[in-house]
Amino acid sequence: MCGIVGYAGRGGAAGEIFECLKKLEYRGYDSAGISTADRGEIFTFKRSGRVQCLSEGIKSLPGSVGIGHTRWATHGAATDANAHPHVSGAFSVVHNGMIENYAELKSELAASGRKFLSQTDSEVIAHLLDYYYDGDLADAVRLTCARLKGCWAIAVLCTHFDGFAVACRGMPVILGRGDANYAASDVNALAGRARERCILGDGCMALVTPRGIQVLDGALAPVKPVFGALGAEEEGESGQDCAHYMLREIRCNARTMRRTCAAFLSSGGGAELYSRLASADMIVLVGCGTAYNAALAGARLLGGAYDCPVTARLAGEARCDPPRVTRRSVCIAVSQSGETADTIAAAGILRAAGAYVIAMTNVGYSAITRLADRVLPVCAGPEICVAATKSYIGQLACFHMLASPSCAALRSKCICAVADDVEKLAFDGEYALVIARLCVNSRAVFFLGRGADVEVAVEGSLKLKEVSYVFSDGLSAAELKHGTLALVDEGVLSVVLVTDAALADKCKNAVEQVLSRRGRVAVVTTLADVHAELCGRVDASWLLPAAPAHLAHFVAATALQLIAYRAALLAGHDPDKPRNLAKSVTVE
Ligand code: GLU
């Protein structure tokens, strides 16, 4: 989490870094700060709050080199003092990640008389750099990094160096070349600025000046960086002006479905994947948050297509209690960013135990792609809103492709037909507002469904709580009477999903159970007869475009995303940046 930026160019460093930080803000928005160096002096401005808080203060920062940070606090509250950069002597540093042995390092440094101004783990890095520096920046960075435990990426400014240094272990750093030279946590920050990009190798460092970029390994031996052009996707999306990224990204759901299917079909590797899955003794899907919810749907789809047991596991749990895999087992690690620490750890453990690892991710150059045996692209494009929407839809499409060993082309065709309806819904789904209003006026919201709708209900609930902060839960409608019904009264809303005619009667039972306890009900259905029957009896009924039961989750999930978006706005929250959260969860 958190975004770091470095810039070395021909002037105006602070303004350039400010623009890059705005594009990284989805990674954390507790505080922001920038340091620049000019004529042997470091200038710093930092504040708690969003990047925008820097807009005035940085105008006075001179210099053509600098570093910047947008924070997701792990150690210490979101205060000005804890904001990065942290300065010690000739050094200023920004840090992404956690220093696991910071307490030990801090006592050691404090014992030698060093004063700490923050509660962060990061400040020890600035002091270590200052302690080890004897005129050679690369060596000071090497010696400092050798003392740090955990996963981190750092950018370092030194008054004696016309540029900055970056180093990483287990966290991403992308180097960029253009009219100036850059480093950033995510390539999106460099869109429209750098022309070429390169991933800094794990355990390596780079010395970046206005004239060039030198990459060194952990022992300071030179490494030749391999730069590639910034792809069209990485340059960001244009058009579709919406008030928020969340809505704009929901409106990309259909395109993501089409692109993800097309990428799978054109990759040419389907046959090998299918035979590996068909001969697997176990398929384990791992993910966190929304990616885990996609994995729940994936387990249902793959379970119907292959003979072996298929399970979805929370990555954070699977890494501590891994299933017993063999060389015939397949692990599918699902992560939008490809940087999710728990998912990477779980996939790594399963791979070490013999499993074949497939990374299903939206980011082609991410850490999980470097660990996996095979990469399955989710073609959602950059996803900026912290709450995942289009990437979830892309993950569903990817699972459909994997679950169609003999009919992928036909399945893709059907998905593309559903995509047309998803598109219309995303642009015209005004009825979402009616249900969103019910949500924000309720003490709690339960999303209920049967069959494949259970997974959609769970994801719809996560979306609502993430962006509107309304308490919610998603569960099987069959489970209602086994506990949750105790909470139902006139202040509680149940959103009942009905997309499979074969299960409609069972869903209607749940509606009756809630109504008879005076609970409020909103029905979300793709079935015209269910809508006709219930719309006069419940608080709201939303008839979605019809879709085959096995593909209806694309439509239903889009509808629930729209409800969550509208609820966030009604509750007065920024849907793109929910409190306490950040995207790309690179900490454990
Ligand atoms: N651990 C550091 C802090 O709390 C950095 C967190 C981050 O990656 O944003 O300041």
Q: Walk across the major sheet and give the strand order.
A: 3-2-4-1-10-9-11-15
Helix content: 25-40%
Number of domains: 3
List cofactors, ions and other ligands: glutamic acid
How many β strands by DSSP?
25
| Proportion of strand residues | 15-25%
- Gyration radius over CA: 25 Å
The count of helical stretches stands at: 18
Global morphology: globular
Contiguous runs where pLDDT drops below 50 for at least 5 residues: none
CATH T-level topology of the largest domain: Glutamine Phosphoribosylpyrophosphate, subunit 1, domain 1
Mean pLDDT: 95
Distance between the termini: 11 Å
CATH superfamily of the largest domain: Aminohydrolase, N-terminal nucleophile (Ntn) domain
The CATH architecture name of the largest domain reads: 4-Layer Sandwich
Largest sheet: 8 strands, antiparallel
The secondary structure category is alpha/beta
Top CATH class of the largest domain: Alpha Beta
